[in-house]
Design brief:
The chain is α+β, with helices and mostly antiparallel strands and 363 residues long. Helix content is 47%, strand content 23%.
């Protein structure tokens, strides 16, 4: 009997060790929705230490508005013994200790031990999988858009060229009355906007090849700022430039960050129609070259800021909605960096771009 006891104890310790050490989160609750089992995988995924999670209500890891709903599910099962989720895999949303939410895959099981029911969920964080899935879907959509744009550009380019050319030729006719001249100007400007839109669509769907070289970002920043200096003065925008020490060399395509900066300066100009201040700061931060462009303009509501990098999203009457999407592609896809915005209504906007400093000397 003693040998059997030791054997059972050894098996129990082995099983407990396997469950505790599993990389997936394994959480068990009783009929009262109280956590009675919580392994190290759950610690890593949810951020709560075992000693803190055990004995707590499961709602600590359930995001609103589902906290009370889940408790009702448990009570209903205890009363009816009927469930639509036990034994199945589901994709839901969970909440970490810091309040952030993340997508998870979970399977449920139930066990009755000495007349009491215990519910176990095996949870896997699928954030990376979801991000990869989103990237794949975005790539597929981009490829479809690219084919459409190529076809449209081919069909429209020549007619636009002819229309614009004729309009400009007619504007030069001597003795043309003002009304006719204004109409021709409207036609020429409309053609120019369409040509610019097609050029941006082409760049977004068929970006040019990146040609990185080792160089310094300071001259690129200075050149882009010089391009706008006179325009800023005309619009009563005071420019403040802060360089927190010289920027070290990095591997990047000089044309691409210049394009990003020009777009950010243009947006800042449009955000301050009655003048204001533009603060440009360059620094090294967390192993990256960082340039921030802060304006004192109108700012953006949270729902606008959340979508500002989405293709074709724009709040401008004549905007294409591609400028910032192209900027994000250049910084993140072509240079492995990131671009962010911090904005609030009435408090202006700050755009920050970061380009990683690669280790090693230029070759």
């Amino acid at each position: 009997i003693l040998c059997q006891f030791h054997e059972l104890r050894q098996k129990h310790e082995i099983n407990s060790g396997i469950l505790l050490g599993a990389t997936d989160a394994i959480i068990t609750i009783d009929e009262n929705h109280t956590i009675v089992g919580y392994n190290y995988g759950a610690e890593k995924i949810f951020g709560y230490p075992r000693r803190e999670a055990l004995g707590q209500d499961l709602k600590i890891i359930i995001p609103p508005p589902h906290k009370e709903v889940h408790l009702d599910y448990v009570r209903r099962y205890v009363a009816t013994r009927q469930s639509r989720v036990i034994g199945k895999h589901l994709q839901l949303t969970a909440q970490r200790r810091d309040g952030t939410e993340f997508p998870m895959s979970i399977s449920f099981s139930v066990a009755e031990i000495q007349g009491n029911l215990y519910f176990t969920g095996i949870v896997r964080d699928i954030s990376e999988y979801k991000e990869m899935e989103d990237r794949m879907l975005a790539s597929e959509r981009l490829a479809a858009i690219g084919n459409t744009v190529a076809h449209i550009t081919h069909e429209i380019k020549n007619p636009l060229l002819i229309i614009g050319g004729f309009a400009r030729q007619l504007q030069k006719i001597a003795g043309l009355d003002d009304k006719s001249r204004r109409k021709l100007t409207i036609i020429a400007e409309g053609v120019a906007r369409l040509e610019a839109l097609m050029a941006e669509m082409k760049d977004f769907t068929r970006p040019p090849e990146t040609r990185k070289i080792w160089g310094n970002l300071d001259p690129v920043l200075d050149e882009a700022l010089e391009f706008f200096q006179e325009t800023f003065r005309e619009h009563h925008i005071q420019v403040r430039q802060t360089k927190e020490g010289p920027l070290p060399p990095a591997n990047f395509d000089p044309k691409q960050p210049r394009r990003v900066l020009l777009n950010l300066f243009k947006n800042a100009l449009e955000a301050m129609p009655r003048g204001g201040e533009l603060t440009i700061t360059s620094r090294v931060k967390d192993g990256n070259l960082e340039v921030s462009v802060a304006d004192t303009g109108e700012g953006m509501a949270p729902d606008v800021a959340a979508n500002i990098f989405q293709p074709y999203f724009t709040t401008k009457e004549k905007g294409t909605g591609l400028g910032l999407a192209i900027c994000q592609f250049i910084v993140e896809k072509q240079h492995g960096g990131c671009i962010n915005v911090d904005s609030a209504p009435g408090k202006g906007s700050t755009f920050s771009i970061q380009i990683p400093l690669e280790e090693g000397a230029p070759t």
